[in-house]
Design a protein that fits this description.
With 240 residues, the chain is an alpha/beta fold. The protein has 2 domains: 3-75 and 152-239, Rossmann fold; 90-150, no CATH class. Helices cover 37% and strands 25% of the residues. The chain has helices at residues 41-49, 91-101, 106-119, 135-147, 165-181, 193-199, 217-222, 228-239; strands spanning 3-12, 15-25, 30-35, 56-61, 64-65, 76-79, 153-157, 185-189, 202-207, 210-213. Helix 2 (91-101) packs across helix 3 (106-119). Bound molecules: adenosine-5'-triphosphate.
Length: 240
């Protein structure tokens, strides 16, 4: 198994947030996690990334227990909703950053970044500074920064939340294409049922600190707690 979580529990100030969370993620798979605001999705991603120290449970990545591995040695990239770009670096160098700190040679950096800029439709903006970009372009640069180091595991926390519907749809397709081309596994937190159904292979729903993983998309839709059935009925009515 690529990633296994065993009995993760977490509390803030004696307030339990995660309770006995178990999960198995296969290689090259995207797991979409939905759940009401405040149910603990971000906390779970940050524990996996090592940004929040684990209190109880085990995180096993590619057969290694990484409970105490520092975040920068986990080979995991956590990408939040806000595009955190370096304001003093242009688009090219923002994306190149992860390669520069790994001391990759300049020819390789040029090749990799140029290829990714094209995939992200950012080639024409390579020399712009972050303040000269639109929100959608910033998000794509943020995505490029995460992808350039080819992380085996990508954790995305509402990554397309700030985008208009059209750009969001483009990013969803791009995400699918790139994670499949680069053989990445990912956990994708979203509030959008349609987005989860579109981008994820597996779907989970978090409720009261418990994570339920569904056998398939239909099982997720059929479970009333997820609200997916109502939402799908709504869209069906709208399109009639
Ligand atoms: N540093 C903290 N100290 C205390 N409580 C916290 C802290 N961080 C989060 N919480 C609480 O833990 C709970 C879970 O928060 P978390 O951000 O993980 O939820 P979420 O499911 O990602 O929410 P959303 O969908 O709104 O982003 C919330 O009730 C939140 O108020």
């Amino acid at each position: 198994m690529f990633l296994t979580l065993q009995n993760i529990q977490h509390q803030y100030n004696n307030e339990p947030v995660l309770q006995h969370v178990n999960l198995q993620l296969q290689a090259n798979t995207t797991l979409g996690i939905l759940g009401k605001s405040g149910c603990g999705k971000t906390t779970l991603l940050k524990i996996i990334a090592g940004i929040i120290p684990i209190q109880v449970g085990e995180i096993i990545l590619q057969n290694n227990n990484i409970n105490t591995t520092p975040p920068h040695l986990r080979n995991i990239v956590y990408m939040s909703q806000e595009a955190l770009l370096f304001p003093h670096l242009n688009v090219f160098e923002n994306i190149a950053f992860g390669l520069r700190i790994r001391k990759e040679n300049n020819t390789q950096v040029q090749q990799k970044v140029t290829a990714l800029l094209t995939q992200l439709s950012l080639a024409a903006h390579a020399q712009k500074m972050p303040h000269q970009l639109s929100g959608g372009q910033k998000q794509r640069v943020n995505f490029g920064r995460a992808l350039i180091i080819n992380p085996p595991l990508l954790l995305l926390d509402e990554p397309f939340g700030n985008l208009d519907t059209h750009t969001r749809a483009e990013m969803q397709l791009l995400f699918k294409e790139i994670t499949s081309n680069y053989n990445m596994a990912s956990i994708f937190v979203t509030h959008d049922v349609k987005e989860a159904l579109l981008v994820a292979n597996d779907i989970g729903y978090m409720n009261n600190g418990h994570l339920k993983i569904y056998a398939n998309q239909q099982a997720f839709i059929d479970d009333d707690i997820t609200g997916a059935k109502n939402e799908m009925a709504f869209w069906k009515n709208v399109s009639c």
